[in-house]
Amino acid sequence: MAKRILHVVSNVAHYADSVHPTGLWLSELTHAWDIFAAEGHDQHLVSPCGGAIPLEPRALKWPLLDTSARAWLADADRRSLLSATASPNDIDAADFDAIYFTGGHAVMWDFPDNKGLQRIAREIFEGGGIVSAVCHGYCGLLNVDLSDGSLLVTHRRVTGFSWTEEVLAGVAKKMPYNAEQTMRERGARYEKAWLPFVSKVSVDERLVTGQNPQSAKATAKHVVALL
């Protein structure tokens, strides 16, 4: 039976200093989209502000621009999905079985404090659905509170882009905060792979998180298994 999955993407086009562009890390969307599509699931996009989605330039270069991402860019219908995303106010969480927060450094600015995204994630989770994220997408989980006032991530196993990976990527000094440290401060049981930039997925009941872009496929497969 087909399920409905909501992908969350960022509207942010640059770091705090506008000299450094950023945006959606495209393969983190396309890898999951392909796996969900193969299962026949119905997929939709939402962003904090709705509307157009910028793409992270680094993810559009070899070798990071892989077959999946190239196929998306070559498909006019799929490209158009990124020009007219829904806003949180357009979304009824009851219509969805899972939410998947994509990454790219952009999300560090517009995911954590967006009340609409928090509402959707909370209602999906409390309705028995799956909350998932990959890479920096876990920034969207930092402030999701449940109806009892507790944070979704507290005491739960979580992974996401590590501070070591930020340093190795050469962008640590430009980050607005240390996402790994902040997740630990929320009481999450943060986990990461022994080596940077290798696939790692953490599953805690209906919370599924992947560490980095290399984890998108595995994250989606775990979501499919739970669905």
UniProtKB/TrEMBL annotation:
<keyword id="KW-0645">Protease</keyword>
<protein>
    <submittedName>
        <fullName>Putative intracellular protease/amidase</fullName>
    </submittedName>
</protein>
<keyword id="KW-0456">Lyase</keyword>
<dbReference type="GO" id="GO:0005737">
    <property type="term" value="C:cytoplasm"/>
</dbReference>
<dbReference type="GO" id="GO:0019172">
    <property type="term" value="F:glyoxalase III activity"/>
</dbReference>
<dbReference type="GO" id="GO:0019243">
    <property type="term" value="P:methylglyoxal catabolic process to D-lactate via S-lactoyl-glutathione"/>
</dbReference>
<dbReference type="InterPro" id="IPR029062">
    <property type="entry name" value="Class_I_gatase-like"/>
</dbReference>
<dbReference type="InterPro" id="IPR002818">
    <property type="entry name" value="DJ-1/PfpI"/>
</dbReference>
<keyword id="KW-0346">Stress response</keyword>
<dbReference type="GO" id="GO:0008233">
    <property type="term" value="F:peptidase activity"/>
</dbReference>
<feature type="domain" description="DJ-1/PfpI">
    <location>
        <begin position="28"/>
        <end position="224"/>
    </location>
</feature>
<dbReference type="InterPro" id="IPR050325">
    <property type="entry name" value="Prot/Nucl_acid_deglycase"/>
</dbReference>
<dbReference type="Pfam" id="PF01965">
    <property type="entry name" value="DJ-1_PfpI"/>
</dbReference>
<keyword id="KW-0378">Hydrolase</keyword>
<comment type="similarity">
    <text>Belongs to the peptidase C56 family. HSP31-like subfamily.</text>
</comment>
<dbReference type="GO" id="GO:0006508">
    <property type="term" value="P:proteolysis"/>
</dbReference>
